[in-house]
Amino acid sequence: MTLAIGGDLNSAKLLLGIAHPQPKKEAGKKGSRIRSVARGLAAEPEWHEPVRKAGAAIETVRREPEDC
User: Fold this and answer.
1) Number of C-alpha atoms within 13 angstroms, CB side, residue 13?
2) CB within 8 A of 53, min separation 6: which ones?
3) How far apart are CA 47 and CA 3, in angstroms?
4) Which end of the chain is more exposed for a tag (fewer CB within 10 A), N or C?
5) Is 38 helix (H, G, I), strand (E, B) or coil?
6) pLDDT in tens, 12-35
7) Structure pTM?
8) How far apart are CA 54 and CA 63, in angstroms?
């Protein structure tokens, strides 16, 4: 307090911070949205690909490009 009275700005800021603490800022909208998407994906059940037998033929489907 003596330093703040003597004109030390950092000491004055420290005293004000102790006397009147600022509420914590919430995360930005973008960060919150990303976290909620990540939580939603983490909550989904794990997907397991069906096991294929060795040597089984893999079918391919060919599709012609569409004209725009």
Assistant:
1) 3
2) none
3) 63
4) C
5) helix
6) 888 888 888 777 766 555 667 777
7) 0.33
8) 27
